Amino acid sequence: MSDLTKKPTTPGPVTPLLEMTDVSVEFGGGKSWKPVTHQISFSVAPGETLALVGESGSGKSVTAMAILNLLPPNARRTGSIRLDGEELVDAGEKRLRQIRGCDVAVIFQEPMTALNPVYTIGAHLVEAIRSHRDVSKDEARATALDLLRGVHMPEPEVKIDHYPHQLSGGQRQRAMIAMAMSSEPRLLIADEPTTALDVTVQAEILDLVRELQGRTGMSVLVITHDMGVVADVADRVVVMREGRVVETAPSAELFARPTHEYTRALLDAVPRLGSGAPATAVVPDRAATAALDLQGVAIDYPGSWRKPGFRAGEDLDLLVAPGEIVGLVGESGSGKSTIGRLAMGLLPVAEGTMTVDGVDVSAGSRSDLALIRSRVSMVFQDPASSLDPRRTIGQSITDPLRWTGEIGDRREARKQAGALLEQVRLPADWADRFPHELSGGQRQRVGIARAMATSPRLLVADEPTSALDVSVQASVLDLFSELQREHGFSCLFISHDLSVVESLATTIVVLQKGRVVEQGPTQRVLTAPTEDYTRRLIAAAPVPDPALQAERRRERLAS
Amino acid sequence: MFSYVLRRIGVGLGLVLLVLTLIFLALHLVPGDPAMLLLSQGDGASATPEAVARVRTQLGLDQPLLTQYWHFLSGALTGDLGESFRNRQPVSEAIGERLPRTLELVGLATLVAVVVGVPWGALAARAGGWFDSVTSVLTSIGIALPVFVFGSILILVFSLKLGALPAGGFAEWGEDPNRHAQILVLPAIALAVGFASTIARMTRSAVLEMLHQDWVRTARSMGLSRRAVFRRYVLRNSLNPVVTTVGIGVGTLLGSTVLVERVFNYPGLSSLLVEAVTARDYPVVQGIVITIAVLFVSINIIVDVLYGVLDPRVRR
Amino acid sequence: MRRRLRQALTPLRLVALVYVGLLLVTLLFAPLVAPHDPLTQDVANRLQGPGLGTHLLGTDELGRDILSRVVYGARVELLIALGATVVSMVLGTLLGLLGGYFGGVVEVVTMRVVVDVLLAFPPIILVLLAVTLRGPGAGTLIVAMGVLFAPTFARIAYGQVISVKRLEYVEAATAFGAPTRTRLFGVILPNISAPLIVQVSLTIATAILLESGLSYLGLGVVPPTPSWGSMVAQGQRYLSTDPHVLLVPGAFVVLTILAFGLLGDALRSGLDPKSRNDR
Fold it and tell me: Are A459 and A293 in contact (CB under 8 A)?
């Protein structure tokens, strides 16, 4: 593992493995072609890891897919793409096919949809192996087993006969990597390889890629939006924005001294773990009547007639003081969203007691629910689906007031909608627009406005920024804490991102498999965690600082 | 897989029970006295009291409802479907004689439709362009063609004008295999055209949908040839929805034989059904409806099992 | 949306739209459109071929004007088809909406018991059972076909509800206190309506197909009311000598079904963004 640190950090005199010169990708057909990327140039040296970073719409994925011409049929590429000196732009399909999966392999973001659901992992691997090597099926299967061992698949002899849907996300990505490694490629293109995964799994997959790189000496082109991932793996970085390269620099240099304004803004927007608690945070008054108080609560997900219900949370104690922001963190399946839905009255209390604003609502009666609706509100995760596409945003914002009977008059509702929109820094006359006319960040502002409509005592925010680009996330988070200071509502802030929670919350609650693992003041939990799981979670969260990240990696691998 | 098959069969049996119950209730849910209803000829003239009493006894309507239900169920499950009003022939015997002929026709039409429809749809999706447009128009027409109109046109062209094939009738395989086969050609084509068009459309849209799936890109990224990608990643996955379409389509086909057998004067189960409906011979109608429904449920069980074979995700 | 609908209207589909429009005019003004009384017999002029005379599309074996009979037949045909479609749309949408939204016992009763049992019969068979019991006639057909086609709507609505109800805006409606009725009919229904509207057009086509088949068997509309199916059946006897007696009404059956089918395709590619393939 020691040879990992000796990789070249600059291409220097070495001839590059991949050289992209003025590559543009255009979509269209016939005579009208519309470029989506403009004259992209960069190169990848042998053994080097290059990161292609950018927010959504930057054209980073399209650029990567252009290398092997894996673009949709209505796209074309221009410029020059040289692999080891060989021009790929005018190479025939036959030649490209020889290169694909042989010299250059690809792994994709979502391994669930990237694998054919009707074939086993073994069948996928055998197919990959036999597409470039003339071996019998039995030999290929033996090789497949070796490959699975090589990517540390647990129980490879069993998993080889499993279908994709029977594996976990991390295991599927390991299988995908095994397929890519089947021909010992010289270049591995990894398109957002860990975006769909939990942080601890992400760390394992990134470690695996580095390990394989160390073993085979291949180059890696990683496409990502996550500056933490960049700091973790990249030697050099290409920053893209709106189809153009903004800046190219060695990783250490880029993070230390970004030259382009956009890069700087991008890095500033990234919340950093360990940057301290918000200066303006309210000190919770534990003696006052809590906004939300859970004692020994258990939550059951109701089953249907086909599948039985299951317990999604147990033995939960949680307190949200007035004006306090409590951060709820955990990986998928930890039950963090479940607690949010419980607090919103969308799930019943199975055991224990839940009080909202001092009133016991555990029974979940009609009047209990009415009380919850009047005191608690919610911001949802996905701005693309949290607003009814058939209603104007003005209607969506004031619907809660209509349903709770606070507003009956249409004109009054419109006035109110305008006022709420201005609160979230959107023009009041946007009330007549439909959600599809807005960007993701704008839609999320509308979601916040809707949550504010009923002047709640407690706001449940379920991953409100996880679907947004970092720069948009930063502005939405700013708005959020501003509103919180202004209105003084309590908040249950649910997130998988420790650094986001750190920037907002005074108290942190760590969840795992439906139970509270650890809770306490944010700074204490993040700097001196008492539980092993919390430590692992913190260690796995990538930090946008290459030097720090390298140190953290060493620590992680040593333990 | 085994437990999946057992479960599908269990669900199928439950469905058969419900189907039988619905048919049983049909007679009783209709407002008015069923015996009177069956005897009235639509002209409002009332039947003689003796006739009404006779029909009541024959259908067992004079017994308590639960007893009737029990007799009906046990009868249906043991193959005792009562006897015809018209000629006192046991219904199961009449069905036994006619059913194989209809099944032969349906089987042949299905075979033709699948063999033509699947490659046609796949080709249209892959080729695109004018071939796809022509396919779109042709399949629209194919679906819109009622079997009784198309069947008549076939008779007009191939029998009356060209004299190439018989216009209908029937010949036992044992007596005249040649004529038996010739007679089947036109009705099978009449049945198959609409079905083939439906299958072609379904295959086409399934293939187009699969072409956009991520795993197709994965397969391409591994360096597989276009052919291999199309066959093993696109066509293979397109089969699942196509199998469902075929399953449902066979049911529609069974229904369409009612018309085709009339057009071609083919003495199958469905023409017996039409005769019975016209004569309001209720035991025969009921027996045939039960037979067809059970047949259709069985086909759907087979389709479900096949679906499980094709798609591991549903096999749980 | 409007632009997408206009794009979906290829020339062929535009012709279909015009044809359907003309049919609807015929439905309302049959006595004005038809040149003759459809029932008046004129044995002297029986079995005339189509031509530019008094009988544009010829006469049948009793000398009745075929064009007039087609026009009146269209009226019956469309009334039954539209009636059955409305019945099935309301019934099916309700079944699917309730089954998909509430799940559990409601789902078992609506989707498994009612829908699956109805789907266990080939369509025409169940109508024949109803005809045996009730005798032929428009009322029997509308109710029987309405019930029979309901499962298709139910399945579409059910599938849509299942996917839409997981979306956050439905959950938000619950969280912000929308009553159940509002959630079902004010939030979910408008968002699942596109494929149901497409299905309306296709169901009309299927209903015409089925009704004409039953009339062909003499089990549909009671004579002497003219219907396309029974006209085809009559024509079969004169197939070798006067094929127009069969071909004219047959062509109208085909054209009408085709037109509603094409209209359904147009609506699908215009309303349903997911089905960009279906062109």
Answer: no
Averaged over successive runs of 10 residues, the pLDDT of chain A (559 residues) comes to: 45 77 89 90 94 90 92 90 91 90 90 88 93 90 94 93 91 93 93 88 92 93 92 93 93 92 90 67 71 91 70 88 91 89 91 91 89 92 88 92 82 89 92 90 93 92 89 91 91 92 91 91 90 90 86 81
Are both B68 and B173 inside the same structural domain?
Answer: no
Output the pTM of the full model: 0.87
Contacts of C239 in chain B (CB under 8 A): 152, 155-156, 160
ipTM: 0.85
Searching chain B, which residue's CA lies closest to the CA of residue A129? B222
Which residues of C are less than 8 Å from B256 in CB distance? 122, 124, 213
Q: Which residue of C has its CA nearest to A304?
A: C104
**Do residues B171 and B297 both lie within one domain?**
yes
User: Which of the residues B59, B147, B149, B213 would you substitute to probe the C interface, choosing the one with the greatest number of C C-beta atoms within 10 Å?
Assistant: B149
**Which segments within A242-320 are labelled E, that is strand?**
244-250, 292-301, 310-320
Tell me which chain A residues have a C-beta less than 8 angstroms from the C-beta of C173: 388, 399, 403
Residue A86 burial by Cβ neighbours in a 10 Å radius (0-12, 13-18, 19+): exposed
Report d(CA A121, CA B215) in Å as an integer: 13
Interface contact flag, C254 B278, Cβ < 8 Å: no
Cβ(B221)–Cβ(B145) below 8 Å: no
Question: All domains of chain C, ordered by start, with CATH?
Answer: 2-30+73-271 (1.10.3720.10)
Using a CB-CB cut-off of 8 Å, the residues of chain B touching A70 are: 217, 220-221
Angle formed by the axes of helices B236-263 and C123-134, to 10°? 40
Quote the distance between the C-alpha of residue C50 and its chain's center: 29
Inter-chain touch A131–B236, beta carbons under 8 Å: no
CATH of the domain at B256: 1.10.3720.10
CB pairs under 8 A between A and B: 69
> Is A304 within 8 Å of C104 when comparing Cβ atoms?
yes
d(CA C92, CA C161): 13
Query: CA-to-CA distance for C119 and C148, rounded, in angstroms?
Result: 8
The answer to whether residue B315 is domain-embedded is no
Q: Domains of chain A (ranges plus CATH)? A: 1-103+193-272 (3.40.50.300), 111-184 (no CATH), 292-392+439-540 (3.40.50.300)
